Amino acid sequence: MSKVRVSRIGEQMKKELSQIIQREIKDPRIGFVTVTAVEVTGDLQQAKVYVSVMGNEEQTENSLAALQKAKGFIRTEVGRRIQLRHTPELLFKIDKSIEYGSKIETILGDIKKDNEL
């Protein structure tokens, strides 16, 4: 399958997943969750969904557990909204890139302060 089509499906899934998580799921364990990326395999059998959660480690784990529990509902909704023959299996992963970027920014700010003194 062409990489362009797989990429386009991944972006569409990212948009739909964000809407489903924010508006459809009523689980109180899900905090402020942002879908940062979706990687779909070439055969459209699996999709890795990278999510970022604002909060501490416990809130992150609770949100991930709630997403795992709601995986069937989310997959059904994605399949209903995106017309595909087979809806990919969803694998949720925590994306630590935002946290890592924030840490780097803090370090660079500290270095800049030290150089100004």
TrEMBL record:
<comment type="subunit">
    <text>Monomer. Binds 30S ribosomal subunits, but not 50S ribosomal subunits or 70S ribosomes.</text>
</comment>
<comment type="similarity">
    <text>Belongs to the RbfA family.</text>
</comment>
<dbReference type="InterPro" id="IPR023799">
    <property type="entry name" value="RbfA_dom_sf"/>
</dbReference>
<dbReference type="InterPro" id="IPR000238">
    <property type="entry name" value="RbfA"/>
</dbReference>
<comment type="function">
    <text>One of several proteins that assist in the late maturation steps of the functional core of the 30S ribosomal subunit. Associates with free 30S ribosomal subunits (but not with 30S subunits that are part of 70S ribosomes or polysomes). Required for efficient processing of 16S rRNA. May interact with the 5'-terminal helix region of 16S rRNA.</text>
</comment>
<dbReference type="InterPro" id="IPR015946">
    <property type="entry name" value="KH_dom-like_a/b"/>
</dbReference>
<dbReference type="InterPro" id="IPR020053">
    <property type="entry name" value="Ribosome-bd_factorA_CS"/>
</dbReference>
<keyword id="KW-0963">Cytoplasm</keyword>
<protein>
    <recommendedName>
        <fullName>Ribosome-binding factor A</fullName>
    </recommendedName>
</protein>
<dbReference type="Pfam" id="PF02033">
    <property type="entry name" value="RBFA"/>
</dbReference>
<keyword id="KW-0690">Ribosome biogenesis</keyword>
